[in-house]
Amino acid sequence: MGGPILGETGSRRAVAVELAELESLRWGSFFGNDRPVELEIGTGKAGFLLRRARAHPDRNFLGIEWANKYYRYAVDRMERWKVVNVRLCRIDAAHFVRVVCPRNSLTALHVYHPDPWPKKRHHKRRLFQKPFVDAAQMRHAVRQISQFVSKQLKAH
Question: Would residue 1 count as lying in a domain?
């Protein structure tokens, strides 16, 4: 089991990620180690992320949450539980996957219960659209995408 994420001064790095830290993102320097990285989009209160990170201390986890209330709750929760292999950020998930996330770098991408945006005029806000799915495939080291995603895209 690895120790805490340490900054240059030797102090524990904060769970919350500043957007400036995402520029020229390299996972090794971002987490301070070269462990596999899993990404969860839409962490909510981070229950899944907490359980997964505690069960897999040999992996790094980045959680993305857009709703400020839940983002702050998730950050506080990780700090209270002293989870050292998780970082959280508040950024548009589609932009992060398409532009910021390095190619072939993720071992898993978790997205549970994305907003459905059922009204036709809101469909452009849906996360699972072809450009996002294509970008997600390029970021995934294994190059597999769930059949569920493929079926959802064909249905719309």
Answer: no
Q: Which of 34, 58, 92, 115 is catalytic?
A: 115
Overall average pLDDT of the 41-55 stretch: 94
pTM flag (> 0.90):
no
Question: What pLDDT band is residue 72 in, cutting at 50, 70 and 90?
Answer: very high
Q: How many helices and strands, by DSSP H and E, does the chain display?
A: 6, 4
Residue 80 has pLDDT above 60, yes or no: yes
> Looking at the domain assignment, is residue 8 inside a domain?
no
CA 51 to chain centre: 15
Domain at 75, CATH number: 3.40.50.150
| 13 inside domain | no
Residue 151: predicted pLDDT: 46
Count of domains observed in the chain: 1
Q: How many residues does the structure list for the chain? A: 156
> Reduced to 3 DSSP states, what percent helix, strand and coil does the chain have, rounded to the nearest 5?
40, 15, 45
User: Given pLDDT bands bounded at 50, 70 and 90, which one contains residue 97?
Assistant: confident
Whether 34 is catalytic:
no
Residue 54 CA to residue 82 CA, distance in Å, equals 10
